[in-house]
Structure formats: structure tokens, C-alpha cells
Amino acid sequence: MAVSPGFSPWLILLIVSASILVVALAIASYRFWNQARQRSASLEELNNTLNYHLEQERALRYINERFLEFSRDILCSISADGTFLQISPACLTILGYSPEELQGQPYRQLLVPEDRASTEDEMARLISGEHDKAIEFRARLNHRNGQVITIAWIAEWSPEDQILFCVGRDISNELVAEILTQEREQFFSLSPDMFCIIDLNSYFFELNAHFVDTLGYTRDELLGTSYLDLVHADDREAVQEAVWALGEGAEIKDLEVRILNRQGGIHWVDINAILSADDLIYVVARDTTALRKAMEQLEETMKELERSNRELQDFAFVASHDLQEPLRKIQAFSDRLIARSEELGEREKDYLRRMQSAAGRMQALIEDLLSYSRVTTRAKPMVACNTNEILSEVLVDMETSIGRAQGKVDAETLPATWGDAMQLRQVLQNLLSNAIKFHAPDRPPVVQVRAEDITNDAWTLVVSDNGIGFDERYAEKLFHPFQRLHQKEGYPGTGIGMAIVKKILDRHGASVSLNSQPGTGTTFRIRLRSGQGAA
After folding, report:
1. Which residues on neighbouring strands pair with residue 522, listed in sequence order?
2. Per-residue DSSP letter, 379
3. Whole-number Å distance between alpha carbons of 18 and 16
4. In terms of Cα–Cα distance, which of 321, 430, 305 is closest to 376?
5. Sheet bearing 148-158, strands edge to edge
6. Contact 429, 499 (CB under 8 A)
7. How many CA atoms are closer than 13 Å to the CA of 62, on its beta-carbon side?
8. Given Cys at both, which of 234, 260, 368, 469 links 496, Cβ 3.0 to 4.6 Å?
């Protein structure tokens, strides 16, 4: 290469080198600028991604905060040592404490003492990994006002965070409803009445066991079928009218209808029913078939009793007239014969005396039968009676017999009684007469009359004596007509007195009991109604 005059070779080399350096610098600068631009774009993209995630995190945090704020359940996190780290505002509504009051506090202090051990055991199982999650674990917590709240918990332990995350729902009302439902179902199934639920289309919706058992069906056989199929044809119209009345707002009370069992047999039932807000009819039916049969039998018995009473009245009339008239004639003619006894031998006189004695006993039996029949045929209405006056009248009438036996009657003040005064007088007369009559030969009779076990409604009349007594094994025999526990010799009578006493007491609804031992005396206890308004 030719070199221009005036330029040295070194200068040219320097210029070329500088040019190459400039080009190299330019290329390097471009590359650096290009890398910087790419790095800036990458940084911008990374920054945008970071900002996106930050926005997502802020949005998620906001959603979580709003979720915590508006959740009706308690959302909380608890540390391994049992301290609340965070808790949602629902705790204020459910437990009466604000989140600020509970954060940093041990959950144990909220538990009722009886549930602390089981709750801590469950938490220990979660932390140890024995359980992955606790679902529907129930624990009772104390509300700020002292009320006990039942919480159903869902809890899960986070090994990474070493935190227990929990969701708690207040199930106190649900628990009460559950208990009430169980009690209702138990009552429904165990009730001795027939229960069923029917709809307005006449179909069975539900039945209890007693309903199906009474009619001989199974529950599945009746569900979905019409109850009208069970109602007697003659009663269906009445049932349909009652159901129509239910729709108009009325209630069914004591509707008596006939329903048919599986074999076609008739059951009388007494029905009460209401229409509920869910348009279902709730029915309670009581089977009165046995009661109706018993009432029919009772009516028949009453008719028979009335017939027997009429016959007894007829017998009393005959006894008081037709039977006594021949006896009076026998006694009159025997008296005439005895008046002429000087013309008769000793054997004939003995026959006459025996005839008079037999006629006298027959007269006494007739009189006693009349007295026994008059307990019902000549009964008077029940009224308030002054028992002390009745007893005083009896003692006045018995003055002679008491004095003859050298006896004594100690009587305390007695409460008023409700009953037939004349018949109560017969009761006292018989009891005191027997006490005087059946006294021991070696000691005078002593009779005590008192009251015990006095209440507003009743009291017990006690009549005790020191007489000869009897074996209690034969006590029931004492109250049967013409039954005697002692020999006729020395103790006259027909043996109907105590039967009259028992019949009178039965009419008064009074019970009688006795205690007796041979040689030590007898005590009668009679439970009487208190006199209502008697003096």
C-alpha cells in the first residue's frame, strides 16, 4: 500500500486501531444496551407478576377477613399449648366475648369442667397425628352470662404451621330440638293410645305401634292407604263431616266411631284430632271397645240388681205380713194351751215350750231379714251427720243392757260424718251391743270408742272391747248373714247383725277391718267420710 506523503505508518496504525476500538465499543455498547433492555423487560415482567400475586394475596386476605367477619360459625386458630391465636367475631354472638378478649387466652377456661379432659384428649390425638381431623366433636362452653352452649367442632392440626385450625358451630338449639324430637318419637311409639297422622286426601302419613297392633296390621300395610277403608260404613259420613270441619278451623273432640280390624271385627274408638299448619291431621284415638262392653255388662248387672231389689222388696212385704201372721197365731194358740197347762202332762208342756221358743226364733229371724233388706229398700239420702249425737242416742238406748252387764263405754269426741244417720246408728248399735254381749264371764265389759287418722276427707272410727274375742281366720265369716262364731248357748242372736253392718258400710263406701284374739277382745276400724259442713 502506498503511503501518502506526510503520514507516518505509526499514525496510520493508530488511526486504524482507534477505528477498530470504536467499532468494538459500539458493538459492546449495543450488546450491553440490548441486554439491559432485555433485563429491564424481565424485571418489569417479574415486577408485574409480583404485583399480581401481591394483589391476589391482598384480595385473598380481604376475603378471609370478610369471611371471618361475617361467618356465623366460630373460626379460630389455636397454638399447641391451647392458646387462641386468632378468632372470628362470631364468638361475640355465640359466647358473649369479643375476639380481643379471647386472643392470647387458653381455650380451656371456656369449657365446662366436665368436658375439659375429653377435649384436651382429642386435641392431643390431633397434634400427635393419631387423628387427621376431628369432625362433629362436641364440647360445652360457658357463655359470658353463665348459659351453657354446645359447640360442634371441626378441627385439623397443621404440622407445618404448628397450629390447630378449628370451625365451631353452635348446636344448642339443634340439640334441644333433637332431644324434643326423640322424646316425641318415644312418646309417639310408647303411648298406650292409637296415634296416626293423615293428610287431607285421607291417606295415612304415619302411625304408631299401638295403632297397627290394635288392628292387626303392619305399619307398611297401612301407610299410603286411605283411613276411610278402616271406618265402618255407617260412620264414614260422620268422619268426613268432621274432617271438613277441621278445614274450617274446628277441632275434633270425643268423636266416637267404629273402625274395622284386619279380621273385620269392630273396634269402638274415641277420637280427638287437629289440623296442623303443614296441612296434616294429627289424630289420637282411644280404643273404648272393652269399656263399652264393660258398660253394657254393668247396665245388665244394674238391671239384674234392680230386679233382685224388687224381689227383695216383695220378699220383705211377704215376710212382714204373710209370714208373721201365722207365727202370731201359733204363739196365740200356744199361749192359750199353756194357760190350760194343768190339764196337760209334762211332755205336752215341754212340746208347747219348744214350739213357743221355735216361733220366737222364727220371729226374730224374720225381723232380722227385714232389717237386712231395709238397708237398701228404706235407705235415706246421705247428709252431714253429727256422730257424737248419734253415739249418745245409742248409749241412751243401751243403758239397761250396759247396766245389766255392769259394763262401761268410754267414748271420745268424734268428727262429723257424711252418711245416712239412721243406718250409722244401726252400725254403732250393733258394734256396741256385740261388745257388751260377748264379754268374758270373769270380767265386766269395757268398750272404747275413739277416732284416729283424721284427715280433711276421712277419718277412722275405732271400737275396741275386752271381750272373749275370736280367731281371726274366721273373720270373713263374721259378715255373712246368719253366721255365728260362738255357741248359741249363753250368747243369743241370729247372727245377722254384722251382715247388716257390712251392708251399710258398703253403701257408705266405708272400709272395715278388725283385729281379734280369743280371750283378749276385738277391735273394729271403720274408715268413714268426713262430714261436709256438719256440726
Report:
1. 516
2. -
3. 5
4. 305
5. 84-87, 74-79, 163-170, 148-158, 133-142
6. no
7. 6
8. 368
Q: Measuring CA to CA, which residue among 443, 442, 462 is closest to residue 452?
A: 462
Helix (H) or strand (E) holding 57: helix 9-70
Cα–Cα distances in angstroms (integers) from residue 236 to residues 248, 267, 288, 449, 496, in the given order: 19, 14, 18, 64, 58
Other beta carbons less than 10 A from residue 353's beta carbon: 13
Give CA 376 to chain center in angstroms.
40
Per-residue model confidence as pLDDT tens digits over 344-400: 777 777 777 777 777 776 776 676 666 666 666 566 788 899 999 999 988 888 888
Whole-number pLDDT of residue 493: 47
Q: Name the pairing type of β-strands 408-411 and 446-452.
A: parallel
Q: Could you write out the DSSP letters of every residue in 148-162?
A: EEEEEEEEEEETTTT
Say how far apart CA 322 and CA 253 lie, in whole Å: 57
Q: For residues 422 and 378, what is the distance between their CA atoms, to the nearest angstrom?
A: 10
Strand, helix or coil for residue 186 = helix
Give CA–CA dist 126/246, Å, rounded.
57
Q: Cβ distance 420 to 379 under 8 Å?
A: yes
DSSP lists the bridge partners of residue 528 as: 459
C-alpha cell at 515: 283385729
User: 377: phi > 0 → left, psi -120 to 50 → alpha, else beta; which?
Assistant: alpha
CA–CA dist 500, 495 (Å, integer): 10
Residue 165, classified by CB atoms within 10 Å of its CB into exposed (0-12), middle (13-18) or buried (19+), is: middle
Return the SS3 of 335: helix
- Strand-pairing partners, residue 515, are 523
